[in-house]
Please model this.
Amino acid sequence: MGSGDHDEGSYSRYQHFLARVYSLTCFLSAEICTNKRAEIDFDVRVYLLQAPNVPEHTHEHTKLIQGPLISMKALIDNSMRWDKIYTVVDQMLESWPKLYMDMIIGTHKNEFLNVGIPADGINHVRDEQYGNIQWHETHRSVAVGGTFDHLHAGHKLLLSATALVLDLSETASPEDIKCITVGITGDALLHDKKFANLMQSWDERQNAVLKFLIAILFLRDAEGAIQNIEHFSEDDPDGKANHYHLRSGLVVKCIEISDSYGPTITDKSISALVVSGETRSGGQAVNTKRIEKGWPRLEVFEVDVLDAQFDDSQSNSSQDFQNKISSTEIRKRLHKQISS
Model:
């Protein structure tokens, strides 16, 4: 990533870059995987590593790692281990593995690493428009929603964009809670879905969401990150939900939803909503409801739809590509595998 000044369009550029990379991983996994279950077998997580000469994106008083945009130091300090690390074919970036190894010498992790360039190389196009991200100070409570069945690249892009919007910087007020609210469609609304018998349960889907969010935000496994959990049943006023209080101070609320609004019209503290291009109208409807209640409008952040820009085949349209990475397609493949 190059250096640059903050600007209002930086969120859009970062999420667009993430969408391009996730699209590429989908295309490549389908190409190289002899097994037809590429989306299931590959658990891809995309982080954006800042160039060593770029100041860290964290606020002055922040002590937390906050992905998916991370520094080299954050990569080293995290609790995960990497079997192999590759770099791209680029004069500037070829020095990164050595820098990484120089910084990691003396830690236990250096015993598990092989660093090098793949035999065929990886092409790299540097885009100087990507500067430091514009952090939104006011967005301490961000919402996102979806079904999240068989978590795939489209879901990961949506959740990564949610992490980009959230501001985890420390404040003087302990009451200023940072929160990600994830509305997850309830099981009762999914019976009419294709191959509904192969849909994951609400609990399975929320576990996958929580695991990914913790990994993408803090570069660590969910185990050990959770301080305590509040469970709410269907009989509670706001319905079924799990509130995960993390040791970092962040609260992740996984809430069962039964309509297109969910907690965005019951929780006034939410100030931002992340949507896909396909659900843009949902964000507009939410703000209409909030205005009717006399509440502030949510700032709506949109993510790109994954497309087939890396596929030169004329037979594959963007719509075909989107269908291939959908939860429905994953369930269809599972059905064929079971049937055979």
